[in-house]
Amino acid sequence: MGALVHLGAAIDQPGVYDAGAYAELARLAERGGLDFVSVDGGFAGPGLDTAGVLARLAPETGRIGLVPALTVPGREADAVTVLDWVSGGRAGLLAADAVLGGRAAGHPVVLVDATDRPARVAAARYADVALVRAVSAAQAAELRGQLAALATEHGRDPRDLRVLASLRIDLGDGERAAEPGHGGGGPRPTAQGPLYRGGPVDLAELIAVWHAEGAVDGFHFVPVEPRRDLERLVNGTVAVLQHRGLFRTFYPGATLREHLGLARPVAVSYAGSVG
């Protein structure tokens, strides 16, 4: 059997400041075996301490990775270090770009939105996971090829960089066939990024096809309606992928690096901002 699909999901809830609501979604994602959940304070409102929220989730979860967005490089590097410690190595960091700057102790996984060229260069050099926004497997494969070439230029083995497609999902139609331009035909472009709208089974097929073609290692989903769509993702899409032997049925490791099949580096440096 080849490498399994990697899956992560955003659990942002606009206007929600109760950590318990985030914990509920994190536990749901963990029940489905997802690699990680992410929280971007920009979606939940100004002043949300994403690393602090996820640190409160650490004792309420046991295996799933916890990835806050970076907004203040120096100070939040320390917060992510604490998160990595209290979670037993399950912390990550989502940044819009990755450049040398604030240094974190430990080895939290660095994720970068690598859709734009400048961020793509930085991701190829410093990141562990590159997120790309694509509306087709061919487009994702092209971006992956560029990342591989850039990584090689900087002396990295491209196989050490995981590439995940960032995809907004609207699973409100249940098991109905995907709309034209969705499902087997791929997502459609929107101002907020590529959007899939359809049923969980069609989404599983899209994931399987893109992964089989080597376009991506997996997906980072941004649910349109967090609670509804995450539940349908776990109970529908993930269940289909597990049945087909494409996704884990349990966590064989305890850290986010183990989930993603990443080696433990000697040191990691990062800084960045999320717009």
Outline the structure in words:
With 275 residues, the chain is of the alpha/beta class. The protein has one domain (6-259): Luciferase-like domain (TIM Barrel). The chain has helices at 19-31, 41-44, 50-57, 73-86, 117-126, 137-153, 200-212, 226-243, 256-260, and strands spanning 6-10, 36-39, 65-68, 92-95, 109-113, 129-132, 162-170, 195-197, 218-223. Strands 1, 2, 3, 4, 5, 6, 7, 8 and 9 form a nine-stranded parallel sheet that branches. α5 (117-126) links the parallel β5 (109-113) and β6 (129-132). α3 packs parallel to α4 (73-86), α5 (117-126) packs across α6 (137-153) and α7 crosses α8 (226-243). The protein is globular. The N and C termini lie far apart (39 Å).
Report the radius of gyration as a whole number of Å: 17 Å
Structural class: alpha/beta
Number of separate strands:
9
Roughly what is the average pLDDT, rounded to an integer?
Answer: 85
CATH superfamily: Luciferase-like domain
Please tell me the CATH architecture by its name: Alpha-Beta Barrel
Distance between the termini: 39 Å
**Model regions low in confidence, pLDDT < 50 over at least 5 residues:** 42-47, 266-275
Features:
275 residues, alpha/beta, TIM Barrel, nine-stranded parallel beta sheet, 16% strand, globular, disordered C terminus
Q: Would you summarize the structure shown here?
A:
By secondary structure, the chain is of the alpha/beta class. The protein has helices at residues 19-31, 41-44, 50-57, 73-86, 117-126, 137-153, 200-212, 226-243, 256-260, and strands at residues 6-10, 36-39, 65-68, 92-95, 109-113, 129-132, 162-170, 195-197, 218-223.
